[in-house]
Write a structure and sequence with these properties.
This is Large-conductance mechanosensitive channel. By secondary structure, the chain is mainly alpha-helical. The protein folds into two domains: 1-51; 53-138, no CATH class. It has four helices and four strands, in the order H-H-E-E-E-E-H-H. The mean pLDDT is 83.
Length: 138
């Protein structure tokens, strides 16, 4: 019974629930950002680069062929274009996340500034009275 109660306490703890929500939201957000990169940003970037699709860039180490038994032997290639594509994807995803976090932080700063009351104003009479009091103490 102790193990079940301990697991229940662990599972309903706020940190675990927050982590679960973060993982779910992160997965959904990842799909949105991937679509932004692949469907919105990459087509114009490829067009600017002369219609180059990075995924097609490769170095062929050994050509593919069909052996005498009729079995197709695939080519051996270094697909550096995929690597470039992943680097571009990562950079764009990092930029998108940075801009979103920056926007959220700016909104928080504005909210905090709006809720912070202005410091109390001190009028000249109060300042003079404090100076007189301090002189009388001496």
């Amino acid at each position: 019974m102790g193990l079940i109660k301990e697991f229940k306490d662990f599972a309903v703890r706020g940190n675990v629930v927050d982590l679960a929500v973060a993982v779910i939201m992160g997965g959904a957000f990842g799909k949105v950002v991937s679509s932004l990169v692949n469907d919105i940003l990459m087509p114009p970037l490829g067009l600017l680069l002369g219609g180059v699709d990075f995924k097609d860039l490769m170095v062929v180490l050994k050509e593919g062929y069909v052996d005498p038994a009729g079995v197709e032997i695939v080519a051996v290639t270094i697909n550096y274009g995929n690597f470039i594509q992943f680097i571009v994807d990562f950079a764009l995803v990092a930029l998108a996340v940075f801009l979103i976090v920056r926007l959220i932080n700016n909104l928080k700063k504005k909210e905090e500034a709006a809720t912070t009351p202005p410091p109390p104003t001190v009028n000249k009479t109060e300042v003079l009275l404090e100076e007189i009091r301090d002189l009388l103490k001496k």
